[in-house]
Amino acid sequence: MANTRxxxxxxxxKTFEAFLAAPDGAPKPGVLxxxxxxxxxxxxxxxxxxxxxxxxxxxxxxxxxxxxxxxSKEECQALIKPFTEDxxxxxxxxxxxxxxxxxxxxxxxxxxxxxxxxxxxxxxLDIARSNADAAGVVSFHGLLxxxxxxxxxxxxxxxxxxxxxxxxxxxxxVTAFGEEMTTAKADWQLHAxxxxxxxxxxxxxxxxxxxxxxxxxxxxxxxxxMTNFLAELFG
Length: 235
What we know:
two-stranded antiparallel ribbon; single chain; eight-stranded mixed beta sheet; alpha/beta
């Protein structure tokens, strides 16, 4: 059973609320969970608890502010817009959040990784692109668009878990991403799941017209790929 708690923290005078789940024992490698476009929700909290079962301190972070959770596609789009339009702003907030996580008593500050879903996938890729203090990042059905300020040499290892039929990250986007990572000399991997759309890890996703559909096989396979990746980072 994981030890769980909510925690408030402040960045640039604004209050945020994270959720932490950690196993018993000495400080553990910390894994940030970057949320989808609605904000931190029970989905991300459950991922933190699942990571704790694997032996990590899972921290579901908050990028929008305490209590902020989008209720409609329009609200969610408005929440991510400041960050998709100002990627340096996003990168600085992520770096400040990593600093917060490193200070937690449950976390081994020398061992940090990040995973993210949808918009959170974009976030973790920007952690890598900006060479924030993380050993590696994992994007689940993340947005792939380059920020325009990718480091010349990316240090964190990168794993992208991608639905091939994702309308929000097309094959052309995948090709451009691969070229971006190769130019930046990253240690990168991309697993593409056939017949799979956006949001494939979310059991309630069922909107084919929008391109968001749960896929149990891709959900299971991608989690196993992440598990192997984290074991390689911290084993």
